[in-house]
Fold these 3 entries.
Entry 1:
Amino acid sequence: MSQLEFAHVTKKYGDFEALSAFTLSVQKGELISIVGPSGCGKTTALRIAAGFEKFDAGRLIVNGNNIELVPPQKRNMGMVFQSYSLFPHLTVAENIGFGLTIRKTEKKKRASVVSDMLDLVRLVDVGHRYPHQLSGGQQQRVALARALAIEPTVLLLDEPLNALDAKVRIEVREEIRSLQKRIGTTTLFVTHDQEEALTISDRVCVMSNGVIQQVGTPREVYDNPSTAFVATFIGETNSMVIGGKEVLVRPEHTRVVNDAEPDSYRGIVQSFSFAGPLQTVVVRMSVDGSLVRATMTNTGGVNWTIGQEIGVVFDCLVPLK
Amino acid sequence: MGGPVGSRASTTSGRWSPSLVLPLLPYFTFVGLFLLVPTVVLFTKAFRPVTGSTTSAMVEAMNASNRSSFMFSLKISFFSAILGAIVGFLFALAVSRIERPRRLRNIVTGFSGVAANLGGIPLAFAFIASLGAQGLFTRVLYHNGIDLYGAGFKIYDFWGIVVVYLYFQIPLMLLVMLPAIDGLRPTWREAAINIGASSSQYWRRVGLPILTPSLLGGTLLLFANAFSAYATAYALSSGGSRLVPVQIRFYLQGNTITGKGNLGYALAAWMVVILLFVMTGYLLLRRRAERWRAA
Amino acid sequence: MNRRRTTWEWPVIIVVGAFFIIPMLAMTRFAMQRVPMSLLGRETIFSRWTIRGLMNTISDDKFQPAFFMSVRLGIVTVLLVLALLLPTVLWLHLRAMRWKILAEIVSLLAYVVPPIALVVGVSGAYRDTVPWIVSSNYGLVPLYAILCFPFAYRTLDVGFAALDLHTLVNASRSLGASWQQTFRKVLIPNLRTAILTTSFLAFAVVIGEFAISSLLLKRTLPTYMLEAQGREPQGAMGVALLLLVLTTVLFMALGRIQKKSPTSSSQEIRITP
């Protein structure tokens, strides 16, 4: 059942189209990521949903109602920002309970919700502290709790992991996912990191220059990219010109072999790196001079040397549409 | 926000190690010589009795007859601080929200820097020219039926001085509040609105509370500023004002005649005591404001 | 939420602006118009404007010594303040972070001890032992420097804090630069805005300072202006106006320099203690 629906939403800044006929239907209880490079329009879409931006054409529908004219305060969509969104003059508990304070929730109920939220994000004894006393990861967890405390119709996440260190990033993203599954909140997650999108989402929406490139499950988007952009943006891709046509193939479907096998293409090893379970070889193909990356599991004993002539086998070649 | 991680030297060799403290000596010695020593001397003299009495001048300075000038100064400082703070804050808020013309902010800040720091003489002149007995504005009001001086207004009396002091109080408050207002992150506003707050609820629960340390600190600064002001009052009243700084001068200049020199010292010493409390409050509030801004 | 609706902002700015501009206009009229107030009306508003009063005062033989004295005092004070505070704040940020809070408190003491109390104390303490302090004009300089410390320390403190000091110094030293070279070629250029702000502000404070110079019976520009007011009121007013205008232009120039600086963040460097 569709909970949030963008129907041909277009947003222009002067002549520049930040969003072109953006159409996306977010199902109840799913976590869908909008992923793309900077400036692709993903944050614009999110802010339109929240009510911070108006749009020029199309419709925005929540649970069957057109919410275009509903002010952001009344949309009941909890949002988590990139950073610095916690109120510095309030304690963690007061921050989390802020939405309830505004809604004039009775004190006891508010305290119980806040305590539940603190449990949920595993920050139980931290309620009395102030934001500046917390680490970045802790702050984002509090921000998440604050957004969830109001039982939002849709949870909006605006690149929430951007400002965090690499290791903390992974912890917090897993926490977001497990929380979301547990509570079942419909979630819209915006990020430029395709690995993030693939690991935690039910569905992924890939965008570029204001236009949706593909929407599908992580596996669909990875195994069956529908445009060259999706193929290169999601995961790594080798691209070559064979027989006059441009073809794409993933490094894990590329193998380097010593002897000339049938269906192998000749090439020269450019570089070789051994990383334990995986090894990577970069080859310059004789057929069109392009560089191709082969990622193979370590089958034991084989070392490739630079300048060596070898054969490259592709397990599945995808011609570009 | 700490600073660069670089205190390794101080932690290993100890806080009081000579190599650490030596380069700081010129600064501290300078302040010691030209500020602390004079203050100590001042207090020493202030505790001596006034000629012809046995009680210390410090106590005598606070008796019923001498207290009035103190109360006068405190009242003026208080009123000009509160008024200056309110108007200055609103002015700063207005300037921060105006986006065009873009030069406006630079002009306002530049002029405020001058008005707040240039000192009282040009200021006093400006007000004599506008609100003095022969002032331009006085004349304009007269033509429109308002006789200021006929009603007993004098530019060196209470309300006259308050109005004149506003000329440097408002700009000073602007200079304090502009950075504080800039420090209100847009994400705070968006987060508040997103979670259900209206614009006025945002101001009441988030914006104003966060600005409060700066507002209070700024008011204290304005108070200290008015309390110590000398030049303006002196120039407006030709040296005969009831304000404490001018009174101190009166006592000290004629001290061989009146024998009340120590009373002058005592009044000055009391000023220092009051300002010590005010500036301590200011410093604490400023640090609180910074902590929130960095969070 | 894109375009801001401004409703009350411009009225407030205009009213407050009027409060500030009207006295300046009154000063201008007083200084430059030879029409007595009682005769001033719609018909006479544009008659008899002259800068003769101002010129008289500037050529007055007491003006120039007072003016140049103030300028000299200003320059020397700026140099003293920078010479004292730059190395101190550098050292505090580089090695002696723990002393910062004390240094900051100390810098604010000038606000605790008002000029009159300071003069009284200095006079009492040093009049007999170091008479130069009260007799020489340049004895004013240390007192002026103390007066400047609150905002000077703060400005430089903020300026240093904006740099990644340790990285810059380590990078410079590792490339072979001596301490002096590092200071001159790496630190000072990056602190240009803070240094200029401190200097302009200190200069403005000194050139307008009245209390200390008057109490110590010195002849500086402000004491001159007050005294000239009795003799040549129009000229004195003209000089005061000129001073206000020139300093405002100076500060506006400072504002533009602050904006263009690569090291200043979006905030203007505050010029308050």
Entry 2:
Amino acid sequence: MPDQRAWMEILQKVGTPLISALLAIGVGSIIIWVSGYDPALAFSALFKGALGGPRQIGETILRSTPLILAGLAVGYGFRAGLFNIGAEGQLMMGGLVAAWLGVLMAGLPSIVVIPVLLVMGPLAGAAWAFVPAILKARIGAHEVITTMMFSHIARYIVSWLTAGPIKAPGQIPQTVSLTEPAQLSRIQSLFSPDVVEALPFLGLGRAHTGIFLAIVAAVGVWLVLRYTTLGYENRAVGLSPWAAQTAGISVQWTTVKALCISGALAGLAGAVEVMGLHHRIFDQFSAGVGFTGIAVALLAKNHPIGIIAAALLFGALSAGSGTMQLEAGVSQKIILIIQALVIFFVAAEGIVTWLIRKRQKEAVSGAN
Amino acid sequence: MLTDVITPDLFAAALRMATPLALAAIGGTICERSGIVNIALEGTMLVGAFFGTAVVLVTGSPWLGVLVAVLAGVAVSAIHATASVNLRTDQVVSGTAINLLALGVTGFLMELWYGHPGTTQPIKTLQPVFSFGAMGEGFLGEVWRWINGVFLSHTPIVYAAIIIALATHWAMYHTRWGLRLRALGEHPRAVDTAGVSVARGRWVAVLMSGALAGLAGANLSIEQVGVFQEGFTNGRGFIALAANIFGRWTPIGSYLASLLFGFADALQIKLQPFRDVIDVPPEFFLMVPYVVTVVVLAGVIGRAVGPAAVGEPYKKE
């Protein structure tokens, strides 16, 4: 029965992530309830904070923007069999370079500054992934350890620079704000105030044009993976390095390219976050986005378009968690727990497949 | 300046700093020898440290805290064992989920129980086992000062780590358990064919690594820092994995490699007061352990080869 199998496949592709997300939220609400809070109140506050109005929807879009890019970064690596657990560090370096160059280039018009920052940020991210990439390709040093170490090093570089060499005048350790031409504008500022007043759904608060960049990047990664030699080699190495090698693909070179492209996407996430939201960097401006990117990629099973959806989910959770803490008193840390549970349920998909296989086997033996 | 840096407490600090790394690294060694990668050591350590601290805050007993930290480590690793042995999920992914869960759960409970994020109240810590004063004079007095300072100034878990390193190393090469453990990671099918349960052997190994990571967490909170602080494991679980590789997947090797990382850490702390003399920003000192880890992994020692079947789920035929 081919149609039944096709149906099963679709169910598995879209169904398991959906079920996993729902299960995770379910377990999350049990934790909220056991902790003595009111889950209904918590989730209605969460919902209100994430989707309650145009400004809240804007906040969800705002939070999802870097998550799409970080998810693409991790996902692209996964497609080559590489686990870029240190995307956070590459993201920081991308943001750092964007914030630093953006200030240096103050006075130049947008048409010059923005493209430069959008190229240099990813380059910085790629550079930060380069050493782990070479170490992986040449001597097999595990990228989980090396990218993680580089992530810690990046953290100290950012805190050193923002506290000293590129610190803005004043008490707070942060850089000078980017001037307007270097910023990605807010979506609502693309329209005149009259238009926004007439069409309230355009009042998207802090959401900025970075979301369009992120979506373009997702489509771009999808096209690359599907239609280019680069993407084909990436997938081939991810599926079986041995087979890829036999087929004449250089596993080492593909590994280096994959981790650097992954780093570039993470660097872009950092640059976009700086140009669209913070307009500067400070200690820990990255706020764990690189790590959430892991959950995003896994939930989407590394599919670039799925990553947009997964990032929107996590963006919404993140946007709503503030309201939840305020109105229901539930710590925002619950979002981390839900993220971890999502990863578990997606990864433990083995159970679902196992159940299906078992039923198929039973059906076969029953037919005999 | 040199005599201000090269002191007994520099080496004592190296032993101290090496302890949580070594315990986690030996846990990693046992786990990987059985064929299971455990990148959840970081989170397991954090959970152990948290529950250990919480128990000391309630009962005032550091020893009870240590016990609970170990049990919490075992509980966390049971999740990893279920996922990687029974459900055959990707072990690195399961480990990542546990690390995230650990950050979330400890942060959530921190706010739920203590009403604020960040750091707990200080707790009663475990004290050094011995307390000898100065003895002798002249050269002999100096020798005693070094022996006493470097080796006899420590808290219980520091000594426990050394004993555990020696004992597990011996057990790994001289007992039936050790032989089976090594076989599990190299050729699980052979173990299975010999009629020994692969799943059971791997479960035991994962739980042992959890207990050791929990003990590492206890050392951090109940012996070293005296508080629990969110995320204060600070990558130690990953450095421990590097120590395991550098130590060539042996307990004593793991301990010695941890000692190297511990020394790097102790040295950077010791050098911090001389910042003005050497004129380097403090962040550069703090980076040292991570840089050393990368350099070591970069193969100062050439290419290390791990157990053949590590990371591969085993499926019984």
Entry 3:
Amino acid sequence: MPEVIISPFARNGIDGYPSAKNYPYWRQLVSMLRQKHSDLYLIQVGVEGEEDIGCHCFLKGLPLRVLMVLIRGCRTWISVDNFFHHLASYVGKPGVVIFGVSDPRIFGDSMNVNLLKGRGYLRKDQFGFWTIDYRNDDAYLTPEEVLNVLEEVIYDRR
Amino acid sequence: MKDSCMDKVSVVIPTLQPGLALKCIESIGQTADLDRFQIIVVATDVEEAIFPDYVEVVHSKERWLPAKAYNEGIKRARGSYVLLLNDDVEFLGYKRRNYWIDLMLEKMNEDSRIGAVGVTWLSDAFGNFEMEFLSKEDKEYGFLVFFCVLFKAEVFATVGLLDERFVCGVDVDFCLRMRRKGYVLSTVESKVPVVGDAYLIGDFPIWHAGEKTVHTVFGEKVWNSMMEKDLQLLRQLYGVVKPGIVIPAWGDCVESLDKCLGSIVDNTCLDGIDVLVLANGCVDAVRQVLYKYRGYVRYVWYDEELGATVAMNRGIAEVKGDVVIILNQDVLILGGDWLSMLLRPFSDSQVGIVGPLLTPAIGEIDAQNVMFFCVAIRREVFERIGMLDEAFSPGGFEDIDFCIRAKEAGWKLVQVPDSTFTYLADKGMFRGQFPIYHVEHHGKWMSKEVYERNYNYFVRKHWKHAAVTAYVLTKGRYETTLPLALMGIVSQSLQVKELLIIDDNEEKLDLSRHAVYQHILGILTRLGISWKVIDGARSVVQNHQLAIKNATYELLWRVDDDNFPMYNVLENCLKVMFARPGVGAVGSLSIVYDVNVSVEDTSGMLKDIWSKLIPQWACFRGVQEVEHLHNSFVYRRRAVQHVLELDLLSPVGHREETIFTAAMHRAGWKLYVVGDVITWHLRQSRGGIRSFDDERMWKHDDEIFAKWVNGGQKIIVLDSGIGDHIEFLKILTLVKERYKDCELIFATCYPEVFEGQGITQISIAQAKELLSPEEYARHNVYRFMSEQKWTGSVKDAYMALYDLGDSHAGSNN
């Protein structure tokens, strides 16, 4: 069963609130993915305390070396702009990254499909902390749009 | 013929709102017999005032403040008693008829000395302001709140009318004046529960809207401002301490002095305050400014410039007041509470000096001193410790000197307010919580030469002991140069607080029994320098580590046992240490008396170590920055957290001081050599590290040193997210290649990222200890990207930051 890893959240901001880089529609996306592609095994990775977005399993607090093994073996992966896509590109496995307010030209890797709704939504100062003030749900693509791209990557249609 | 009002109570009600006064009057009629009263309403700031026929009306279209309004009513009062009543008062009918007036009269007649009966006492505070300036006796006398107070009519004949300079403080003032005439005050005893934002006076059937009304009429801000001014006047009339203000003025200060005096006049009730301008060397046009403020300010004119210190002293001697306030001619007073803020702490009789800004630290000297651009000083302090030291003339450091002397004499210094004052150095002005603005215009006397001279004088005067641990590592030199090294330390113009002797001799001498050393140790004890002899560890490096571990103070002065520092070495090294930011170590010249080295043959750069001598060998003037030091120098303990790397050396520790200091430099600390001051290097063929005669050790250390000079350690700080660590991991090969001659040390937040990569890792906290703050900040890739307006990737930013090939593509700068 092909595995898709989902790393849905960035580390909380220094203000203690969820990062402004988090995608707001994970539950809808996962629900659609599971309905449409029952052949996929969805693995959420993250840390204790994070929201369960409805994947087949939720692996918490994996050491980097284990994550790297997991990444090597998966069909593909999808994440927000968090550490995961850096690790995956270090491993050499391409995937999908949902950007919104942070700039993929600075923080993304060209190996991946970096999704950005529009550069007009980017935060002006890219080098400060991602506190809750910079959250903007309008900056993100819809679950349908993300699903279309993810399907292309999973089924190698790109 | 007897006046029909003689036995009556004259009620005086000032009002700006006739409707309100009417309700008040109606409440009198509803709760008491009107024929017992003569009712006078003083209605001002109203077009017309229509009241029942039994009310006598004084009407003015102009607004009168309460004291004047009351006075106009009092002048018309014909009763034996006068009841001053606010218009926002209503009497309540829940007691028998006439209850309240009978009760007040009963109280009045309890004691013939009673001159006034009120409803409630003023609390200790005057609004939100304390009246700490009053004497204990005045405070205990108590004050009636004048919203409803019954007076014997004779009181006004004896004491006079209300003082119309007051708005809100009129009741406090009048009560104090009554006290001085021998009257006693009383109240109908009642509790004052607060109901909502008004007062219901317990058993006494009265309702008073209180401050709600005055805030409505005047606005809360205006009312509070009036309270501040009244408080100042009360302080001047009744305060235990009376202030006098001195403003030394010099040169062409027409504009600044005009603004300064204008701001004082605008923000200060100057009644009874002596304001003295000590004009010295001023241009003639200043006379016009002084003329403009005549009546507020007096002046003494000197054609010649006296200098700030002398001018202040003459002003202090001339001005009248228990507390002398010194203001610079270039300050602007910004608020009416400045004087109260300055004077309030003097209610504590131990407080001698009060000001808004504390001086910055001067080396290790106590920094809690007040700057004299705005300061209040109790006159008694001058009487006890003398005036400002005119040796500082024309000026500079006399304020700090005076504060230190005052503190030594037991006076307290207080900063007001107790919050941090902002110093905007780039604009040369002071602003903060205290209502003052100060633009520094030093006179022409504040030249670099004067500053240096006064600094030196100041340091000599106060800096008797520096918080420094001196230490001497010694081996085989008991009978040669060690006594000279110790005497050099003992004889400094600025003495250390502690001396450690690390005795690495195999056969120890009991120094306290030796004919020479017992004298040296005796002198140390007499000078108050604590000293300790510590057994050495048979290794130069470990001995230094021992000293660092045992030292009490953050600053250490290492003196080799074949060195003899002249008297001014420590003082001058510390001056350089404190005068610049980020200094890790400072050494003096280190001169061998029979060797002449030309400055041209020296270099302070590490790369030249094989071909040139360090500048410490040659005589030169001034201060020179270098990359390493040798022999003796003063250093910060914080800057040498890297001494561990010296463990690589053999026990002889050959080149140890070069690695020791060059590593400081690599960690971002600055090193200096001070010319002009000499430590004599009394080179010995035996003893010290020359006690080690195993050539292999010397050779080993030379090899280690050669490798170290070419490389050493490279610390990289990754104080960032795990994603950034991984980006750095991607370029690790390039980093290793770039720094192949160095031992790479990464300070990381996520050490697991670099596990198995052959990298020494330390914590972020350790990196902060190892590196200077400036060097630490240089590793911040986000700061770098922000400064460079970076548009490339984080990985490229790291490559640019660590100089890994052509990687500046992302920079928009």
